[in-house]
Amino acid sequence: MQQARFAIPIRAAWVRPLAAILLAAALGACATRPDQVDVTVGVDVPQPQAANNYAALHAPYAMMATAAYVDENVLTAGNHCPDVRKLGIRQPGDTDDTFAFNKSVRGWITHLKQRQWECRFGVVGSLPCPDRLGQDCRPVSGLGFHVWRRMQGGACHEVVIAFRGTDRNDRGDWTSNFRFLYRLVPRFDQYDQVRTHIGRVVERIKRSGCGGSGTLFVSAGHSLGGGLAQQAAFADGTIRYVYGFDPSPVTGIFDISAILRERNSQGLGVDRAYEAGEILVLPRILIENIIPPWPCNPRVRTIRFNMLSGSPFAQHSIAALTEKLHAAAQTPGADPRRVEAWREARSCEGIPLLPMLLPPA
Q1: Global pTM?
Q2: How far apart are CA 163 and CA 147, in angstroms?
Q3: pLDDT digits over 336-361, tens only?
Q4: Dist. CA 203–CA 55, nearest whole Å
Q5: Residue 337 belongs to a domain with what CATH number?
Q6: 305 φ, ψ (degrees, to nearest 5)
């Protein structure tokens, strides 16, 4: 009986603030028009701005983040990039939803190719443990990403490493999402794999013709992929901007040494773009109340869209968000150059990210 009496006030103490947060998020979503976004740098007051410029900026990266979800059976045999031909053919075992998704991705890839983007190579499945962890180390499954590049005037202008998010049927994805539960029995999860191998991935990209000083390196991803994209940038200073869509609040940042993450955060920019009301809003709010977004080094910009409807799970869909972003990007006057922020991130002045106690992830 003592346990029961003790549990009730604890629950009540948490329910009220959580309900208040959810209500505030819901009311905030209602207050934002579909043609507007709320934009915040660090912890400043959100500012309403036109959505079409941000949609035009984010749409290509959202397309790449969406394409990262395609199954292995529609990838090219040689470099593990999405195969446009296979995406247009119903594969054995495909459901109607899977085939419709593949055709949608096929359209995005065609759109990207028209704008000089090409997928160079991809990685599917786990990356190996380092020797120092011994033979008992077993990497979890589920990691996937594609490397895209855009040529301009014969030179490599931009590179994007686009990470796949959560596959609900992949145990390795869930192990990575809830990695804080495995502190006492660590797994070599996807964050560990990205942190360990991102340097080699970047060097491979540079050797393929993208090693010039004029090449902008970007990472991107949705949900878990958004967390991995941030981890990659904190682990390797070559990556100078991150586009995370409905990103996981887990970034694995405190697995990186303080010296390394401070160095790599200098001049780094991060866009955390999300749909108002999607399922990860509350976890991000809770984490950001412990570790607020930085205004500089890294410069974290939060962009809240209000383009979708339905349940929190439905609003978490990157495929649906990409459709809306693409449509908004076609409206008259939409110009991504008005809201690009990598220059601001590079030149901002402020205290670099500080070491924290009791990191959540």
Answers
A1: 0.88
A2: 9
A3: 999 999 999 999 987 665 544 344 44
A4: 31
A5: 3.40.50
A6: -95, 160
